[in-house]
Fold this sequence. Notes:
single chain, 3 domains, five-stranded mixed sheet, five-stranded antiparallel sheet, 22 helices, 18 strands, globular, disordered C terminus
Amino acid sequence: MWWLTEINDYSETYYPIFFEIKKNLGISGHISMWREGILGGMPLFGDPLAMLLSPINWLVFFFDLAWFFPLAVSATFIVGALGMSLFLKKIGVKNRIAMLFGILYMLMPLSIAHIKAGHLNIYEAVGWYPWILYFAYKWFSERKIATVLYASIFSTLALFSHPGMTYILMIFLIPIFFSSYKKFGWKHILFFFLFFLGLGAIYLLPSLELHQFINRSSITGEDVVPIWTVKAFMGGFFFPYAKISSLDQEAVLYPGLGILLLSLWQIYRSSKKVKIISIVLILFVTVLTLGNQTPLYGWLISLLPFEGVFRVSSRFWYIVLLLLIIFAARAAGQMKQKNWKAFLILIIIFEYSIFGLLRLNLPGRYGYIKNNLSYFNTNFNTPATFRIYSVNHAISQKKSIENNLLLADGEYPLQLKANIDFLQQAGGYTYSRYSVIQPPYQTYALNPQPKAKLLGMMNVLYVVSPYKLIDPNFEEILHDKTEITYKNKEFKSMLWSDNKSLRLNTYTPTGDNISASFHVSQDASIYLGLRNYPGWNIFLDGRPVSWETDQIWKKILVPSGSHSLEARFDNTMFRWGKTITTFTFFIIMFLLIFDRFFLKNRKLKFRKKIPFVK
């Protein structure tokens, strides 16, 4: 089970998300809309990495998390291979060739590299691509409302899997729609976007709200992941085997020798118009893939909204791979020299098999500096009521969530900006650029000295560091070979008062619902360790109360005496999005039924021949 034992995006990102969802579901009986595990918390819906709206990921509710990853990958493989097979058959490729290249599409080296890295969301989105193309093609040729509806449905499924990958595909599809608006039909184009946005509202509305509060919204072309040099790009495209053990998954651009030869042959024998369009498209995507290695990239993505989507520029390369697979399949289907065809197909199968086996069997990264977290639970029996902070992100997110422990630091692409700004003050470091990891690894060599008082206000009880901390309010309690564990004397619980008059009796967090009971000996301002985000409602002794925003906490005025407090997260944008998505879904179902039984023989301006696929 390398997907759990190695350090990858599944074990450290998706596994903790799904673990927390299932844990809160078991406690409260519903899917919690807020998760607390790392970096002070984050809303669930609107977070593209949660992927809970994708039907493939519903497997998580029926199977153990240890087996969810291979099951989800297998389901995605079947969906994508079937979709590509149908699309290739639709454009005239013979059945057996279409089936073979449908399978090869889902086994491309870049996809295998992403699977090894635990990028389940990217693989799922790529699996929906062929279905979008299939129904867009049918829409183009048949002009039936059902094809428009299905195109919007599968576009939404891709959106639920990976919004960024869907956005990239739409960047290339939208110009096709509008340049051929007479063939697609203005009304049909309008219907497509209305239904696509309507179905996706349950994600899009919370996501637009989240975008205002996260630091990723400030990403520019300068923050692109620095993958490339010219040498690395050429090696990643033409021959990745020389560095297969060290080549970053984002840099595996190689389509395979057989795919490359077949696709080039198909482009060569195509019409002049197809040649020009294909070459221009490949060159354009190459410029985008090279990212900030070219002066054009920053300017190009600045023209588009949500620049943060393009932090990893190599994701654009899937457009080229998609095009090459389609051209190669058509070439194989039309090739009359059977021996050459069999030879090239055997090369593809052999090469994809070898690359897949080599990549998936690479030794991964194992273990964080501090793996044994049982110390915190066995010696201090107060799980989920404090946070742990590591100056160099030395604690596994997977192991922390399994031990019911919360982290103040963490590795996650989306981070609430206010929380990160305060964490920099508390952690004693400064870093102005975007970083997935907090604290950023660029600050580790500087040995930043965290501030006990500020970390205490973030509910940090324990601090882990590989070097000595000088703040006198950090008490050394454990010294291992690789790190020192400190107890924070300035620790404040999840509920604390400014005049130290609060005695916390109970504190029960279950994701989007927190209940507590406490006593204050005098009138006090109490602070609740919930990050400021729209949707939280607070009830004191059963009655709703207002609060003030004080940096990253909620400040509530309470009279002396014993009290009960409850905080509930009920996000308005999510409720609106759910209503719009439900309404759109029923309209689509009605139209599909109406089309099936009343308009089944009706076609508008049917065209038998489609340009650019000869």
